[in-house]
Amino acid sequence: MSSTNVMGRVRLAGSGRPAARRTPGRRWWADLAGSAALLSVVAVVALWLHDGGIRAFAQPGGPATTAGRLTGLVASDLLLLQVLLMARIPGVERGYGQDTLARRHRVVGFVSFWLMIGHLTLITVGYAQSGGAGVVAEAWDLVVTYPGMLLAAAGTGLLFLVVVLSVRLARRRQRYETWHLIHLYAYLGVGLALPHQLWTGADFVASAPARIYWWGLYAATLGAVVVFRVGLPVYRSAYHRLRVHAVVPEAPGVVSVYLRGHRLDRLPARGGQFFLWRFLDGPGWTRAHPYTLSSAPSGDLLRITVKELGDGSSRVATLRPGTRVLVEGPYGALTADRRAAGRKVLLVAAGVGITTMRALLDDFARSGAQVTLLYRIRRPADAVFRTELDEAARRGLARVIYLDGGRARAGSWLPAQFARVGDLAGLRRLVPDVAQHDAFVCGPPPWMAGVRTTLRAAGVDPDHIHAEEFAW
């Protein structure tokens, strides 16, 4: 394991005993979870058909009412699946990665929302046609007289707020902490819709199988949220009792925070993963900040490295030793076991993305992998962990190449000295046998996209290109 000197600096792990090698790819339980999600939609439609959902089609207002009930059922199922996608279920999280789950959560959320709008519209029209009332009058009657409908209307309003603020343009104008706080209202929206579905939803109570399915799905969703979003973080924070040990400058605007705690060897964290951190240093401690481990965990020490990009990250530099810390995690799937057995390793980092690569380097050093690190920086003074990376190169743990200077051209991920040859030829010049590597990439999203494009053009199979973004 890694050790520390009296100044709290993390030293590189020695090659030591080779770690067990695993092949990349999603674990079987991730595939099982994905299949179960798809089957849940099939089950909803099958139960609806089994309980005679199509029989009302021939009645006055039947087509609209029938379509409205079906869209409502599918919307409810997808809404619960959306919650489960971000419930931080460990096996699913490790199998897919946080960025993939966040993207699917967003897509499923938008689909479920528009199906819900379709449900409300179609049911109102269908009821109006069957009763001979106007659409507006029928809508009012539904909300104020049907059991649970007033709560459902309030829940729909909250979900509408969350959807509007989840549009990409709106997210860009918000801090992550603000968006995260507002997003919690989605849970309240789901909860407010529950009484309506169980009190007035004929398709929810039509048969014993339907009741078992819906009560089971709601119970499983609530259980996952309580256990993995609340219970597990509270337990780990209480058991490991993390505190700030030291705050050390690494480069201009970049600091490392060293944390000690109780039995950190039992914390199931790997290099490349991240936690949500809450530092109990005063007002605002409730806001969680996502930071990646910047060295592989040791028995009594964790390290994160933070660049000043906003209020939360600037505050990290002022933390005092002894400050208590609450954690959620670990999260993320960009770990060393993504590497295929026997393949060389290429680490490609830019900016603060070096934190992830530095932690991965520890794990690869222990496994005896042949590692090349390409580190893109604007100027030599910006290099984070320069001493540690140079030591790794000296000890033969990695071939380290600093790529400093201005951009070669618009859209290029390489510096100016490669302007004439281009990105593909430049990559092949730096790593001639690049197609034999598993590539791990971390940096700004547009820069990462350019690296992945070049890697594919150089013959690296997409299954051997590993990258993960913090998505929200």
Automatic annotation (TrEMBL):
Native source species: Paractinoplanes ferrugineus
The protein's name: Oxidoreductase
Transmembrane spans: 28-50, 70-87, 107-128, 148-170, 182-200, 212-232
Major site of localization recorded for this protein: membrane
Highest taxon listed in the record's lineage: Bacteria
InterPro entries: FAD-bd_FR_type, Fe3_Rdtase_TM_dom, FNR_nucleotide-bd, MRET, OxRdtase_FAD/NAD-bd, Riboflavin_synthase-like_b-brl
Location(s), subcellular: Membrane
Gene Ontology cellular-component annotations: membrane
Protein's membrane topology: Multi-pass membrane protein
CDD domains: FNR_like_3 (cd06198)
Pfam family for this entry, one: NAD_binding_1
Segments forming domain FAD-binding FR-type: 237-337
Protein keywords: 2Fe-2S, FAD, Flavoprotein, Iron, Iron-sulfur, Membrane, Metal-binding, Oxidoreductase, Transmembrane, Transmembrane helix
